[in-house]
Amino acid sequence: MSEVLDSYPLLLRGAWTTVQITVYGAVFALVLALAFGLAGTARGRLLRAVNRIYVEFFRGVAALVLMYWFFYALPLLGLRFTPIAAAVLAIGLNYGAYGAEVVRGSVEAVPRAQWEAACALNFTAAQRMRRVLLPQATALMLPPFGNLLIELMKATAGVSLVSIADLTFRAKQIQASTGQTAATFAVILVMYFVIAQALQVLVRIAERRTARMLGRGLPPRRSPAAAPAGEAVLP
Amino acid sequence: MNWDWNYTGKLIPDLLDGLRVTVTATLLGYLIALALGLVWTLLRRSPNPLVHQTVRWVTEFVRSTPLLVQLFFLFYVLPSWGITLGALTAGIVGLGLHYSTYTAEVYRAGIEDVPRGQWEAATALNLPRRRVWAGVVLPQAVRRVVPSLGNYLIALFKDTPFLFGITVTELLGSAFDEGAHTLKYLEPITVAGLFFIAVSVVSSLALRRLEKHYATH
User: What family is this (chain A) (predicted)?
Assistant: First the structure.
């Protein structure tokens, strides 16, 4: 055990890489989720088709397969990424598809009267979205986004298989050099757990701020598994 | 570089073998997840605070740590404790254990969604405990949880490539091995990706039909 803890600089560097990939991946996924999710709420059939194709395609393919594809197959087509860029692209595209469904569901779950009121006040489509629908939809999006963020963080462990030196990769190095298999993996499992809990705290702070911005109480906490987007609507 | 159709044709049988391993792991892992999830749910209903707090934190821990590391743990650590699992077995157990923490949440939400009045009516009718569960609560809870359970079947299927990390030659693994032989990765990995999309799109369509069938009115 002490040998494993002695190699803490290596573990911390790995954890930092994991956090970096998680953050970059999450930001990229968020951008894609907003763009494609809002396309899914559009009136035009073309935009909605773009949303469906993106979501079905990238939700259907496994994140790890996508990563391997970016890492091994694309260079043969002449497109070369740095390993981290390939990982971030793959993870972002994959989780962006899940996020797009959350965004679409949340915007559609804002009560219809809000939309009608905004129309009656002669808001333009952009104003309607930015001033009325999105702020209320954000409150609905955050809890499922929190779950997706944890899932995304867990998926980053896959980058160790394409030899990016994240936490899992460092653990395998330490395990090989010290032979302390059980201790090494136990330590990094705890480290991943701590990262996940920290992310959850951040999401909860964001939820509280959004609720205050809208002048609402906090929606009741729901179990992570069974809460479809749009159920926590408050009057 | 161009797409080589001849090579693609030669790959298909091997990739189908890989797909068979993937599907086996998915189905067996899912069975474990369904059964073990029920165990977690029942233990969490235990009146003993030590039991339900322990189960709560254990499931939370398993749910928020990466499947890949859990697989490493099962595959590399257990042998030193005298339990040696084959790679595929370790993978199936890992998938089942990981997803049991999700199915447990689904069951719990399903049971909590059964209206209070149903419990009260069952008590008023003086039904024995077994009939309360078998005749009143579970039939209503099951309808509510079928769609979420189906989603986790698809999610589990898409997590099977992690088994490649512990040397199981599933779909991604067989594609990668093919590529490693010929140094042509484009075709095998693309085809493997298309297989994944095909299976998950078809199963989500099937799931949507099932959802309609079980919809609560």
Answer: Belongs to the binding-protein-dependent transport system permease family.
Q: Does residue A182 fall inside a structural domain?
A: yes
Please count the residue pairs, one from chain A and one from chain B, whose beta carbons lie less than 8 angstroms apart. Answer: 140
User: B110: nearest CA in chain A?
Assistant: A226
Residue span of the structural domain in which A88 resides: 2-213
> Is residue A24 domain-resident?
yes
Chain B residues within 8 A of A181 when measuring between CB atoms: 76-77, 80
Residue A234 lies in a domain: no
Domain assignment present for A233: no
CATH for B5-214, options being 1.10.1750.10, 2.60.120.10, 3.30.300.30, 1.10.3720.10: 1.10.3720.10
| Cβ partners under 8 Å of residue A19, min gap 6 | A195
Contacts of A25 (CB under 8 A, 6+ apart): A87, A88, A91, A92, A95, A152, A156
Q: Which CATH number covers residue A154?
A: 1.10.3720.10
What is the ipTM score, two decimals?
0.87
**Ordered per-residue pLDDT tens for chain B, 217 residues:** 678 888 888 888 889 999 999 999 999 999 999 999 999 998 998 889 999 999 999 999 999 999 999 999 999 988 888 888 889 999 999 999 999 999 999 999 999 889 999 999 999 999 998 899 888 988 888 888 888 888 899 999 999 999 999 989 889 999 998 888 888 888 899 999 999 999 988 888 888 888 788 766 4
**Residue B15 CB: number of other CB atoms within 10 A?**
21
What are the counts of helices (DSSP H) followed by strands (DSSP E) for chain A?
10, 0
DSSP helix/strand/coil, B173: helix
Which residues of B fall within a CB distance of 8 Å from A189?
A: 61, 65, 69-70, 73
The pTM of the full predicted model, rounded to 2 decimals, is: 0.88
Cα→Cα distances A26→A90, A145, A148, B139, B140, Å: 11, 10, 9, 39, 37
